[in-house]
Amino acid sequence: MLAAIRPDEWNWALLLHVGGAMILVGGMLTAASALTLARGHAGVLRLGYWSLLAVSLPGYILMRIGAEWIADKELLLEEGVEEPDWLGVGYLVADTGALLLLIALVVGGIGVYRLRGGKGTSLLMATMVISLVLLAAYVVTIWAMSAKPG
Amino acid sequence: MSFDDWILALHVLSAFALVGAMVLFWILIVAMRNLDSVGDTIAFGRVMRVGTGVVMAGVVGTILFGIWLAISLDAYEVWDGWILAAIVLWAIGTGTGMRSDVEYRKAVTRAEELRSSGQEGQPGELRALNRTSAGLTMHTISSLAIVLILLDMIWKPGA
After folding, report:
1. Which end of chain B is more exposed for a tag (fewer CB within 10 A), N or C?
2. Helix boundaries (H) for chain B
3. Crossing angle for the helix pair A121-147 and A42-51, nearest 10 degrees?
4. Partner-chain contact B40 A51, CB within 8 Å
């Protein structure tokens, strides 16, 4: 049904958006899992942090570029075009999520640095909580972007 | 929202679970390449279990909700070329993915055996298991199949 109403020239933008989002979610899933299950193991805590930095962050950037590209192609950003609810959810989670991701990276970065001295686990716990919140928010967003309520 | 919209959302969520877990396994494959201690292998293995659970949900959800949609929506049929291609690729991805899981799990299983017997194992033993080339090959094929499914789902050739 979607293929019938979506021109082929939109596909690259969609691929970038969806592919980036999948990398973002994969990195976040790894980070949340590692930080939750580390039980103080420094190597697993580092794995969680680096998953956020080296996988989730690039995934977010790709997803966001793809989002603007496809929204532009679909003329959703034109003046006078009413923003659909699902797009509003997408932008809200993407923008708020970027801020939270940034906070998680800064706090977690300090935590990883302090791991050398045997400290920093509480800061990485904060990063873990943010990762879990973001993961839950992404699930809701994926539902909204695919089911497109409203 | 129609019932089909819900099924589509579940299909897409399953796809995200599948690819998300695939990314998790790639991160673990890279991170575990140099692990040679029992404690490290078991600790990283806990994260691997999450990936296994998520990938199973993704594998079942994508095929179940995907076929449901193909039957339910008038625009598609299960025997459409791009849908048949996706099913074949799904089977390849699932088969090789399961094989990869078996190979990588050997290191964690061995580490747990060593821990329960109070041993550390021979130097290099766990590293060799964590670097399984058979597991890496299977995971690469599985990942390629999943990427091809994604391309197939977006371009829908012949639809």
Report:
1. N
2. 3-31, 38-72, 81-116, 125-130, 133-155
3. 40
4. no
Residue type at position A80: G
Taking residues B112-135, what's their average pLDDT?
93
d(CA A139, CA A134): 9
Which two tokens mark B142? 């599985």
- pLDDT, tens digit, for every residue of B12-65? 999 999 999 999 999 999 999 999 999 999 999 999 999 999 999 999 999 999
Distances from the Cα of B37 to the Cα of A35, A135, B118, angstroms: 20, 31, 13
All residues of chain B having their beta carbon less than 8 Å from the beta carbon of residue A43 are 31, 35, 40, 43-44
ipTM above 0.90, yes or no: yes
CB pairs under 8 A between A and B: 105
CA distance A150 to chain B (A): 8
Q: What angle do CA A71, A72, A75 make, to 5 degrees?
A: 85
Domain boundaries in chain B?
Answer: 3-155
> Are the Cβ atoms of B51 and A33 closer than 8 angstroms?
yes
Cα B19 from Cα B9, distance rounded (Å): 15
Q: Which of B138, B112, B134, B129 is nearest to B22 (CA)?
A: B138
Closest CA to B100 of B147, B148, B52: B52
Cα A3 to Cα B48: distance, rounded to the nearest angstrom: 36
Instruction: Report the residue from B9, B11, B16 with minimal CB separation from A25.
Output: B16
Amino acid at A41: H
Q: What is the mean pLDDT of each run of 10 residues along chain A (150 residues)?
A: 64 96 98 97 97 98 95 77 84 95 98 92 96 97 88
